[in-house]
Amino acid sequence: MKNLLELLDRTAARLPDAPAFCDEETSITWSGLKQKAAALGTALARQGARGRSVALYLDHNVACILGMMGTLAAGGFYTVLDIAQPAERVRRITDQLHPAVLLTDAAHLEAARALGVGDCLLTVEDAAATPMDENLLQEIRTAMVDTDLAYVLFTSGSTGLPKGVAITHRNVLAYSEWAVETFGFGPHTVLGNQTPFYFSMSVTDIYGALRSGACVQILPRRFFSFPVQLLDYLTQRRVNTIYWVPSALGIVANWKALDYTTPPPLRTILFAGEVMPTAKLNYWRFHYPQALFANLYGPTETTDICAYYVVDRDFADDEPLPIGRACANCGLLVLKEGRLAEAGEEGELCARGSFLAAGYYGLPEKTAERFCQNPLQSAYPEIIYRTGDLVRYNDRGELIYCGRMDHQIKHMGYRIEPGEIETAAFGQDKLDNCACLYDQQRDRLVLFYQGKRDLTDALRERLAQRLPPYMRPAVYHRLKLMPQNQNGKIDRIALGAMLADLP
User: Fold this and answer.
1) Domain end (from 310, 326, 342)
2) What gap in Å lies between CA 372 and CA 352, rounded to an integer?
3) Burial 241-253, CB ≥16 within 10 A → b, else e
């Protein structure tokens, strides 16, 4: 298999009338998706998309899925743009891509036109009405190889310029095979998609479904502000599998929403993207004692995930979860100064294998910095990806995440990981969320927290019992709501901007 659309062909032949993707207003079957993808592919190919970028300026809905599949049919690679982002940042992305086509819909046509990007502006409605050119599409498919790009996903860059992670068909084929086999996705699976399509976690939902015949219910974003309504929607749509960021799961736990409605019929609950507060996980596990819970870990550069831990034992509220062990067909190395770290020793986690991205789009120097030769052998070229994450193995042979290499704090002569302080704090009752930052100007640790009441004294006492003096925050600052970025993670940049205003 060399092309992701072969997954669609196979599933459409096996389950032609089964629902494939659904949003609040629209539903499409597998055969319908194949037909629409061919029409869009024909239109996009005629506009020069073959081997080039197609920028998708679309909502988080079925139309965006059509744009993805149509781009792949045209032999191009797509980038999903965030329509809620300022036009300036969108242009910083499209300036790097130089897309052949900007694909939008009637609802966003004027906003897309105002961007002034792309060689061509096309709507999904017009493209979907294009008669399929079977000969053209087959010619494109025949010439493709599995190392052709499928999409470029942009993440924030340390310089402020977004950097595009280039993912190939081979990457997603290898990754989706692992995900489907590991978690048993099939026609019986109904996935509740929370993550935006410009975020790597959505790859598991989309291509896990494409491979297995699962149905994806695209969840309305507004329900994540009303957790009881969210749970009722999951029940209504018969969602039995979710893969969410911990912040989204935390919203339900913070409001104790599972106490106030009939819990939806969830069998598999997966999470990734940031550290999962164990207290929030324990709330969910109490309500779903028979469900499979798994902590997934991985950067965008490994397609989505490279390590995972299926929760198989109880943890205290302030005990960190392991990130587990390597996914099948994904090699992990813990390196310390160019050698393998010893048992229990912290080192940088590096990944190798078919999950690894092709590199950063248009950034050869940045690619060479992070995608480099395996230092453990020099006999032939073997690229590994340096994640920049510190890990160690525990006595069970499980990987423990220890924080980012570039987030380490040197305070009072000690090197400190903010994640350790946050983990200790998360066991505090009534605490909804927290993040620890280093105020370099005043040489102090600051703990921002979100809670239903003032917890400063309780947190101060708790951390005094769990952390050495040099790791205890000097300042505790309560927020009504922790700022989040577009991916649902804590926005540490926004928190950093608050430091100067604190007393």
Assistant:
1) 326
2) 10
3) bbbbbbbbbbbbb
Query: Which secondary-structure segment (H or E) carries 175?
Result: helix 169-183
Specify the pTM.
Answer: 0.91
Residue 30 gets the label, from left (phi > 0), alpha (psi -120 to 50) or beta, of alpha
Whether 285 is covered by a domain: the verdict is yes
Identify the CA nearest to 349 among candidates 324, 319, 321, 313: 324
Residue 175 lies in a domain: no
Return the residue matching tokens 């003096």: 469
Length of the chain: 503
First to last CA, the chain: 60
Q: Give the residue carrying structure tokens 């006595």.
A: 395
Domain range enclosing 354:
330-403
Provide the token pair at 124: 């999904």
Is residue 246, in this structure, part of any structural domain at all? yes
Residue 150 in any domain: the answer is no
**Euclidean distance between CA atoms 433 and 435, whole angstroms:** 7
**Domain with 370 in it: what CATH number?**
2.30.38.10
Beta bridge partners of 410: 415
> Is the same domain home to 357 and 384?
yes
* 417: CATH: 3.30.300.30
Cα separations (Å) of 101 from 53, 123, 427, 435? 7, 10, 49, 40
For 426-485, what is each residue's pLDDT tens digit?
989 999 999 999 998 898 999 999 998 999 999 999 999 988 888 999 999 999 999 998
